Amino acid sequence: MPSEGIKLAPALLLACILALSLLVGLAGRTSKGAYYLVSGPSVGRAGIGAAIASNWMSAASFLGIAGIFYLQGYMAFAYVVGWTGGYVLLLILMAAQIRRFGKYTAPEFVEARYDSPVARCLAATITILITLIYCTAQYKGIALVFSWIFGLDYTPSLLLGTAVGIGYLVLSGTLGASRNQQFQYGILILCFIIPLMVIAKNLGYFWILPQLGYGRALCELGQAPHHLSLAPWTSGTPYEWIALCFTLMVGTAGLPHVLSRFYTVPNLRDARWSVVWGIFFIGLLYWSAPVYATLARIAQGSTPSPTDPEAARALADLIVLKAGEWAGLPSWLIGIIAVGAIIAAFSTVTGLLITGAGAFSYDIYHRLINPAADEKKRMRVAKGATLVLALLVVVLALNPPWLIAQITAVAFALAGNTLFPVFLLGIWWDRTTKQGAIAGMLTGLAVTFGALLLGPLVPGLGIILPATSSALIGAPLVILVMIGVSLVTPPPSEEIRRFLAEEVHAP
Amino acid sequence: MTDTPPPRPTPNPDYRVNFFRPRPGYLRQKVRYTWVLLISWAFFTLGFQFLLLLTQDTPEGDSLITETILFGFPLHYWFSGQFLIVWFILLCFLFNLFVDHLTRIHRQRR
What we know:
The structure holds two protein chains of two kinds.
Chain A lengths: L7 H20 L16 H13 L2 H14 L3 H26 L4 H9 L2 H34 L3 H22 L5 H23 L6 H4 L1 H9 L14 H17 L1 H4 L8 H34 L7 H8 L2 H8 L4 H39 L5 H22 L7 H14 L1 H10 L5 H21 L6 H4 L6 H18 L5 H11 L3
Helix pairs in contact in A: 1-16, 2-8, 2-13, 3-4, 3-6, 3-13, 3-14, 3-16, 3-18, 4-11, 4-13, 5-6, 5-19, 6-7, 6-16, 6-17, 6-18, 6-20, 8-13, 8-16, 10-13, 11-18, 11-19, 11-22, 13-15, 15-16, 16-17, 18-20, 18-22, 19-22, 20-22
Chain B lengths: L25 H30 L8 H4 L1 E2 L2 E2 H35 L1
Antiparallel strand pairs in B: 1-2
């Protein structure tokens, strides 16, 4: 998207905010060089909730949902509901139990529960694949926003954004800066809501709580039929809505970097209660994102440019910025939104790349390739793997055909088809065996990538198994496969079953 | 709550963990709560979409529900976009209350 050259105010803002969060990170530096886990003084349940939310918010939340809402209306609520309702599943089915296992990553849990290096390796591979897909969506967001700020084409923006992102990661790593998640959440939510209030005010709608007051704008859109139909199934069938929503929910409960949140909290009870705050803080963003899209439609209606579907699709992922432009916001105020999106994407990418690189270095390299490697060597491998993964993602993000939220949904489908059943049965059925887990993960991989790669080729498959929503059929299928295989293989050792019954499910 | 947890050193201990047939005591009560919450989670989330489907007058889903305005919103927008998040927060809140309560009872007994 070539545009009008560099926008000075947003560029300066971006530099300032990055420097500021580095300074805040340095101020909260811990004596032990904890590579990425947050430690430090107790921050209370609301504070932990803010950390959960800041860890969660990515370009998909910041840019993607508004983009989908702009294009598809009611369909976007499948994302909103899926990405919040997943936390309910996570909390009531798995959170406390996984924490009691005392394992910090998905591969470690799999090894501990199933006692099988093969299953661990498979879980590590899946973690890396999820990282790659999820990061591709983030990179697309980073590239689009950089191209908006610096007036470059997509590809140079992608490279510039990657360079800045890696530079920032290396700099904060060498300086030992910790990430202050509460500070980051504060920045993110202000960057999202303050410009939104100004947009609502400029357009003459209720601006104090635009999240509650955009109903009138929505109804006005519904009355002008060429804008956006308010009927629920205009952009997708009920099956598609439910499949997508279910996929995102089980995916949330299985995502490796979401699970690891529960270990940084000192006690279990606080961890549980912080989820209530976490959903509230995430909800603040998700209540607001549809307002951006609605107001963008309204503001666009008053400009003469007619929209054809292709042009609308190209605009969709930047619609939060366009809403600001069309509503006549000053450049620096739109810049605030852009900076928020970049911060959200950077932090998600950082967390994911480190999770993925850790999975390679500890679970694949150390276990399979070089068991003699010491801590220093593994750390070097992890750093190398971070770079390699980052470069792979750049290649994947060069020409992604889908919208940000859709790419992210594929990562959720993969998590929901593989890790979610492995966690769920591993916790709630003592009879689940390693053979069952391995067969389940392989089936899940086959379903996810079958839907992704064969969907366009085999007629009808794309309707039953959409690539973004394959877990509605996939997850139950994988669970059945796991149960079947487990029943015909010898039960797991008494030791692990005893641990499960007496420790993991203890009061 | 007449069930007592199985005594610890027994020759043939019960290690069974099964969501559909939980051991009596703490686990059974917790699973009961979990079921109630899971059903209310699914009923409100997916059940509402089925309701839209059942009552629709056109293939796009227009119906009495979508024409009703609540708090300024078409009802289905208000329900899925605003109310469900509140509902999820409430479910998590209730779950935590239940578990706190259960833990208190069973920790005392041990």
